[in-house]
């Protein structure tokens, strides 16, 4: 009964949407990472993005104006990782906050002598547990240019990771996947990445396992050939997790 109601509700949302197919296609044309999608996948992405915009509030910070183009661009890139999953993977939170440019975050750490150190770090995005996704539009506007860097994919993959609690690089597995295999392959690759930089994979991924997973996901969608060259076993593992094969020919 619930699934029938859910489908009925989604159909009503789609029917009432004022975003035309032509408008989705126009915004999509400005995001090169989406070029690999065939017509069926494009339409699936437009549907997901429409439902995403209905369920999530996107607001501007520091005077940033949220236009329809901004909303649609974020929605399309945010929904790419869940193209063959569903919006339930983004459950438990409701908002996206967009700054005009990067923002500063203050953090405190206590050292071994009990002294508290306050640090200010520049951020292009953040994902909060059970809270919002925060993005810098300066870093988001051209995020889908297939250079292996995509702040939207990065932060929304953190949200997938957080479905098991705090982000740690070990998201819920798809049916048929083995948690032990994921843990072993990711841990071994993370240890290797500490000492062996790989072409096209941001060194920020060496920070911790959560950032490693998010950085690898950026590369998986934008420059999958470089991920396959560096860690072919991780590329295959991620095709099973995302249920997508970016290197496969599109029909």
Major sheet: order of its strands?
A: 1-2-6-5
Low-pLDDT residue spans: 113-120
Number of helices: 10
In helices, the fraction of residues equals: 40-55%
The CATH class is identified as: Mainly Alpha
Overall pLDDT confidence = 91
- How widely separated are the two ends? 35 Å
Query: Using DSSP, what is the number of strands?
Result: 6
**CATH topology description:** Cyclin A, domain 1
H/E series, N to C? HHHEHEEEEEHHHHHH
Rg value? 18 Å
Shape: globular
CATH homologous group name: Glucose-regulated metallo-peptidase M90, N-terminal domain
CATH architectural group: Orthogonal Bundle
How many distinct folded domains? Answer: 1
Largest sheet: 4 strands, mixed
Q: Determine the structural class based on helices, strands and strand pairing.
A: alpha/beta
Q: Can you characterise this structure?
A:
The protein has 251 residues and is an alpha/beta fold. It has one domain: Glucose-regulated metallo-peptidase M90, N-terminal domain (Cyclin A, domain 1, Orthogonal Bundle). 47% of the residues lie in helices and 13% in strands. The chain has 10 helices and 6 strands. It has helices at 2-16, 21-29, 39-55, 68-79, 137-140, 151-161, 179-195, 209-222, 224-230, 232-242; strands spanning 57-60, 95-99, 103-110, 116-123, 125-127, 133-136. The strands form 2 sheets. A 4-stranded mixed sheet has the order 1-2-6-5. A two-stranded antiparallel sheet has the order 3-4. Helix 3 packs across helix 4 (68-79) and helix 8 packs across helix 9. The radius of gyration is 18 Å and the shape is globular. The model is unreliable at 113-120 (pLDDT under 50).
């Amino acid at each position: 009964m619930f699934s029938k109601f859910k489908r009925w509700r989604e159909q009503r949302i789609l029917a009432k949407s004022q975003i035309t197919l032509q408008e989705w296609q126009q915004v999509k044309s400005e995001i090169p990472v989406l070029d690999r999608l065939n017509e069926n996948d494009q339409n699936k992405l437009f549907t997901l993005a429409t439902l995403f915009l209905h369920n999530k509030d996107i607001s501007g910070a520091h005077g940033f104006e949220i236009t329809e183009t901004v909303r649609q661009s974020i929605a399309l890139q945010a929904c790419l990782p869940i193209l063959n999953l569903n919006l339930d993977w983004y459950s438990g939170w409701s908002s996206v906050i967009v700054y005009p440019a990067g923002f500063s975050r203050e953090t405190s750490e206590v050292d071994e002598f009990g002294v508290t150190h306050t640090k200010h770090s520049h951020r292009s995005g953040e994902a909060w547990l059970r809270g919002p996704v925060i993005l810098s539009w300066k870093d988001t506007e051209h995020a889908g240019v297939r250079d292996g860097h995509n702040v939207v994919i990065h932060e929304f993959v953190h949200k997938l990771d957080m479905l098991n609690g705090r982000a740690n690089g070990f998201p819920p597995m798809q049916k048929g996947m083995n948690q032990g295999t994921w843990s072993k392959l990711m841990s071994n690759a993370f240890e290797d990445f500490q000492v062996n930089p790989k072409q096209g994979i941001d060194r920020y991924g060496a920070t911790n396992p959560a950032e490693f997973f998010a950085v690898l996901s950026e590369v998986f969608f934008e420059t999958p050939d470089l991920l396959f060259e560096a860690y072919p076993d991780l590329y295959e593992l991620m095709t099973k997790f995302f249920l997508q094969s970016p290197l496969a020919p599109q029909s």
